From TrEMBL:
It comes from Paenibacillus cisolokensis. This is Uncharacterized protein.
Amino acid sequence: MYIPAIAVIGYDGFYVYAEEEWTGADGHTEQKPVWGAKKPYAYADSTGNSLSFTLDDFVLAYDAISRSWHEGLRADVGQQTNIALLKDAERFEQVRRSTIVRAIEDELAYRINKHNESVSRFGLSYTFTLPTISQEDWNNTVDDVGVLAFIQGIPMGGKFYNNYALGGSRLLKKPEIVGARKGSMKVYYRSTCGFTYPVEETFSSEKAAAQKGYMPLDCPVSPS
């Protein structure tokens, strides 16, 4: 009863784990914590355009003028549509972040209010509230997939214990190792080096490429 809500912040939407009440097949009222449906990071402007944001600049957009849907990176979709927000990278980032934070805050506030109604039936008089979350933590939330959990109202003498935890994770993809043919010589290098030699194989490590007879090729050094 001391955990009013848990939110999982996903790439293109979020889920909330909270108390729900419904009537079962036997006609009795049931109540227990369940996972809700995914809620998108949705935004609509004053001209009827709508956007569904993600944790980066990939976006699903509805262009009200052409009455068409478009999906892709902000810059690409901006060229395909009449949506002004997509043509301004800085404003897009501001709106994207504020939309995600507001969507999560509004849903959590609603769930916590519902939780207050629920626990009052069991005689728990503590009032659960949405805590003030630091801007740094919200920035982490908007940048990474993660979990946000609240615990409140645990009696500790004459006081109550309240806290929240935010755990984020980020997947960093290692550069792929390319095995290619440079003239008569077999060479390998990181895929980020920018070489255009004919590719023969790809590897997950330099060791694997060397074992197949490829020789290392250093990336060109950018002038300072």
